[in-house]
Amino acid sequence: MEIKKVAVLGAGTMGAGIAQVCAQAGYEVWVRDIKDEFIERGKSTIEKNLRKAVNKGKISLLKLKEIQSKLHYTTDLREAVSDADLVIEAVPEVMDLKKEVFKEVCGYNKKAVLATNTSGLSITELAKATDRPDKFVGMHFFNPVPVMALVEVIKGEQTSDETVNVAVEFVKSIGKTPVVVKKDIAGFIVNRCLVPYLLLAIQDYENGVASKEEIDATMLYNYSFPMGPIELSDFVGLDVLYFATQQWDIAPKSKALEEKFNAKELGMKTAVGFYDWRTGRPKIDRELAGKYDGLRLIAPMVNIAADLIQQGVALAEEIDTAMKLGTNMPKGPCEMADEIGLDKILAKVEEIYKEKGYEILKPSEYLKKLVEEGKTGKDAGEGFYKYTGEVGYRTIVIEKDEEAKIAKLILNRPHRLNAISFELLDELADALRKLEKDDDVRVLIITGSGDKAFSAGFDLQEALQGDVLSPASSMMIATKGQTIFTIIERFPKPVIAAINGYAFGGGCELSLACDFRIMSKGGKIGLTELTLGLIPGWGGTQRMAKLIGIAKAKELIFLGKRLSAEEAEQVGLVNKAVDADKFWDEVMALAKQLAEGSPIALRVAKYAINFGYELPVEVGQALEAAYFGIVTSTQDVMEGIKAFFERREPEFKGK
Question: For position 281, which CATH number holds?
């Protein structure tokens, strides 16, 4: 099914965001609301977001005008939906209201796929209000829509597989990551895991198990969550959380939460919640970390995830993806559980269930089965995931094409725009050492997971923890990154940076250490550290100046400029800017051409250029002559000369 026109019903925060991303993806979008003032407010929100994107260099003025031309606004439902291919409803979270909207839609449109943006209402029940339950699907976007990558695609009892596939492909087409929720279950995936986690934390604070600061410090610093659960509750809105307890029986009740709701102390939005936000984000003392048992919150979340797997709602990988993209958790619950040990998780779940008795805390049969079978996680070789032979990397993925002798090293933190963490640096160094020794690899491609980012740079979340930004620690971090990127620069095989999206800060510096940079159009690249009051610390000031000249490097670094692929190609920062649909064809064509060359000649040519460039011309030429002498003694030279006279392609062996 081809989708050309999309109708978005509701111009509030979610509807405006959905309309914006659809228009940015090239769809004709009709935004409908019941009053002109609501329409104007939604239009203003979209315009503000787009202007901000222009000011940040994310889109051009030409692109802005193109997006604006795709957006149409109306209060007439018939006009909005009559010939739409997809209708996305984003009205307030009230079952009867949503049903009434869909009844009206079905009177004006008999062909469209119907989607509801709901965080937890039953898809099956909403579908009953339509004349096509087989073409009805849930699409749960996350706020803010232009920023959050996840969309849960929820299958109702009568939703056809074809409709699910249409929804999945549409979500991909607007640059989002779909996770299919295969059964219509309360809270879907993210909220079913997240809401109990938040409420159990509030209960432990309420019952005096620990202070709110001790709970938040433990999850923030010991488990590397972006926020502790009580601070996050304030951030989300205590009214939102309170309504969740009324809507779902999965959510334990909290007297403290009810009191906050009745007092209209709703968190950050009212400046007072569990914390006082009047002076900004609460300061959580790192020294309090560990004074609370974080497994009291982690174990129930894992148990819920195990139950979702058991019920056939989603696989472990899908749950982890949803939780990382939907909540910015550093790891998914199944990943964390495998590291902690499923036996420890189960023991804690049994303890908490005995203490509280909530049905959602009842130990999952699937979790018990894994433990009974000895599949307790990484140390056992299997848990939610299998770990065969050498334990795999967590922040990178290695893919090999042994026939072509090409390896891909994928920075695999898409939920953080492939930001470079300390763990990623360590795994990158280890992988490079192993790939250097692998005779079945002649060319290395480094790229980012997903289609949004090559790497957005150093993970600032890690920078804000502990004493990372102290002078001594900062110097060590800079030295570590420089050392590892120098390994890339001196890697004895050609290295291609396949820049498939944003490459900022440390991500840009990583690409500069590579031999070639192929960049997808639509991406952005730059050393942006000065906009944060920093300077490049992983070789950027040196490599960029040598690559494009000192004057241009100063301009880009001092101003923190973000260049488009075309601009980067023009100044020589990347070798080639390529249309997105031809990007990987171009990257692989270059890689295969390099892989067919003489491994020894490529290595010494790289060394001659890299090392000789720093030397006076006469010394560089002497180095070149020495390397020339080395390659003339190889079997590859004899094969190359022989193939030349025989008029065939040489078959170099690297000997």
Answer: 1.10.1040.50
Task: Measure the CA dihedral 310/311/315/318, to 10°.
Answer: -130
Domain tally for the chain?
A: 4
Residues 145, 222, single domain; the answer is no
Q: Are residues 227 and 151 in the same domain?
A: no
In contact, 494 and 444? CB cutoff 8 Å: yes
Comparing CA positions, the residue from 284, 282, 294 lying closest to residue 222 is 294
Residue 466's pLDDT is 53
The amino acid that residue 289 corresponds to is A
Q: How many CB atoms lie within 10 A of CB 399?
A: 11
- Within 10 Å of residue 204's Cβ, how many Cβ atoms? 21
Which sequence positions are flagged as catalytic?
509, 529
Q: What is the pLDDT of residues 220-230, one digit of tens each?
A: 988 888 899 99
Query: Which residues are CB-neighbours of 53 under 8 A, at least 6 positions away?
Result: 59, 64
Per the structure, the complete domain to which residue 53 belongs is given by: 5-181
621: domain CATH number? 1.10.12.10
Within this chain, do residues 583 and 489 fall inside the same structural domain, yes or no? yes
- Angle of helix 316-327 relative to helix 333-340, nearest 10 degrees, comes to 110
pLDDT in tens, 475-498: 888 899 999 999 999 999 999 999
- Upper half-sphere CA count for residue 131 (Cβ side, 13 Å): 10
In angstroms, the CA 428 to CA 442 distance is 18
Residue at 426 is within a domain: yes
372 shares its domain with 468: no
Residue 577, domain member (yes or no): yes
Q: Determine the pLDDT at residue 389.
A: 46
Residue 606: its pLDDT value, please?
Answer: 85
Q: How far apart are CA 117 and CA 140, in angstroms?
A: 5
Q: What percent of the chain has pLDDT over 90?
A: 72
Query: What burial letters (b/e) apply to 154-184, b meaning 16+ CB within 10 Å?
Result: bbbebbbeebbebbbebbeebbbbbbbbbbb
Q: Which of 51-60, 318-327, 452-461 has the lowest mean pLDDT?
A: 51-60
